[in-house]
Write a structure and sequence with these properties.
This protein has helices at residues 2-21, 62-79, 118-129, 146-159, 234-243, and strands spanning 54-59, 85-90, 110-114, 134-141, 162-168, 180-186, 202-210, 216-223, 226-229. It is α/β, with parallel strands linked by helices and 245 residues long. It has one domain (51-243): P-loop containing nucleotide triphosphate hydrolases (Rossmann fold), CATH 3.40.50.300. A nine-stranded mixed beta sheet has the order 3-2-4-5-1-6-7-8-9, sandwiched between helices. A hairpin with a 2-residue loop joins strand 8 (216-223) and strand 9 (226-229). Helix 3 (118-129) runs parallel beside helix 4. The longest helix is centred in the N-terminal third of the chain and has 20 residues, at 2-21. The radius of gyration is 18 Å and the shape is globular. It starts with a helix and ends with a helix.
Amino acid sequence: MEGVVNKQEILRQLREKLEVLEGFRPLPQERQLDFGLGPMADAFPGRCLPMGAVHEFISPSPACAAASTGFISGLLSTLMKNGSICLWVSTRRSLFPPALKSFGIEPHQVIFVDVRNEKEALWTMEQGLKCKSLSAVVAELREVSFDESRRLQLAVEESRVTGFLHRLQPRSENTLACVSRWKIRPLPSVVSDGLPGVGFPLWEVELVKIRNGRPGIWSVGWRDGAFHHTPVTEVAMSQVEKRYA
């Protein structure tokens, strides 16, 4: 039994060393945050969403872009709960700032930077990621090359700021140096007790890839200031697949 325990400890230490060699340095235990993602946490290395890294979100349609913005805002609510500041960069902003209050974020905590083109957006994001005073940087754009994403990843390895790269209808899903790739799709909202009206946001969250982790798909909603995992019927799923195919 002791031999098995020793082997497990050796494997754990080897995994940690490999993560460091691959550019992923987990934060100290006291600085890790609980994002309330429940069973989704099993997909992450060390059961914690990687911070001080760049995460890529791909949205092939406006509906998916709105869903991704909502999910990112839910993550930001944890990163910014101590009153810290976030930088939000875009070439064509669609976010309605007061809507952030639904995710526990005060609009004045977000610095919006509207730029003329994607080259300026990437430069602004890179400079923001170098600023240790920020908790996170979000950039909305379309095309990103591997070399450009590598510069972003190098910036966060020094500052430990978390970046969210939201790609809106990209021409191709090319390989990037980001630590993860996500696809968020809207699902029919669930109304409690059969009451009429629009329910709370509900998304199909697909973690396409995650460095040193395990990809997966979950049904996640936002209610009462926190993420909630909600079972989705096969009928609802088939309706969404037909609508957004």
